[in-house]
Amino acid sequence: MLDLTPYVRSGDGVWWSQAGAEAVPLVDALLDQVGGIGPVRAFCGLTFNRRLRDLPPELALTSYGAMGELRAASVAGRLDIVPAHYSVLPRLFAERRLPGDVGLVQVAPPGTDGRCSLGIGADYAADAVRHSRVLLAEINHRMPATAGTEGIPLERFAAVVETDRPLPEAPDRAPDAVDEAIAAHVAGLVSDGDTLQLGVGALPTAILDGLAGHRDLGVHSGMITDGVLRLVEKGAVTGARKEIDPGVVVTGAALGSAELYARLPEMSVAFRPASYTHAPAVLARLSRLVAVNSALEVDLTGQVGAEVAAGRYLGGVGGQADFSGAATRTGACSIIALRATAGGASTIVPALGGGAVTTARADVDAVVTEHGVAWLRGVPLPERGPRLAAIAAPEHREALYRAQREDHR
To answer: Which among 1, 19, 127 is positioned nearest to 68, based on CA atoms?
Structure first.
């Protein structure tokens, strides 16, 4: 185990890469040694590291959301949420408003130029490295070298550890009949030549699989999965009609199977920093952008809650507002897709119960459940409630219609 005491000081801010790119050996070393270092502030995104469920008292953890194993820390009151659009994270690192003294990254072995690729995790890491005093690296011999972002010179790292471990694979369940029904409705809103942004999970997987019959689709997204690989193999994703980066899948990260990771070097994929993938000026150039995002709940005016449910922080702002806003204003369509019920309760609600609006109703063109599509673009507020109630689960519709009538008496 690497001794961190020469590199991490009491009072420092430490960040590390997220999801499959998380430098787990270095993070574990920090958890083991922080008691002897002193108080440390830390930042991370999506994590599968179960050790972060029970944090040492000396470690104060911050994130842009409660994803993966961070949910347990959130429930325990040990996670501070910064409610920021993903596009703003690079600025927050630059202004030192997020912990950034020491960066822990997982990289591919150095190439012939002596530089190490960030592999499947460019996203916010590629921006944060520019502002870190110290960089520590896990050089994983199974991390693929990817294109799109300049590698980090080997000499930039104050210390490295070498590993040869499999990259984490996506833990999501397989799509079911409800996911496939939603996907069929979404497919009807996507045209040949559109550029897609989707999230990660069973529903996005079903949506991608449901687009196999489309042609010349492009991808510009914060993260890609095996569903994108399958569409490339079937000829549905070519990027031929993209206004920028034609022929190239643009992403910040990848999270999927070992096959996806192995195929990345041979695919036309560019891994770019968040300052590019989520930048408003970049997204505004994609006139056929279709943003497909999920939610915990949607109210009868079209406001989207994707952060809090039943008083618990379960999600995050992430890139949803960045992509939804761009798709609505300068792109093709902003879609919110969700199951009509969760735990027996309706996800179409009279008012958001979480107390936080993740995406404004003005940035939503359509809401989709397994029961249909509620088109909202250009629709006045009094008409939105009935449209949304109509795609709720049948057993909840009457209560929603009644709430709509009472609200507009």
So the answer is: 19
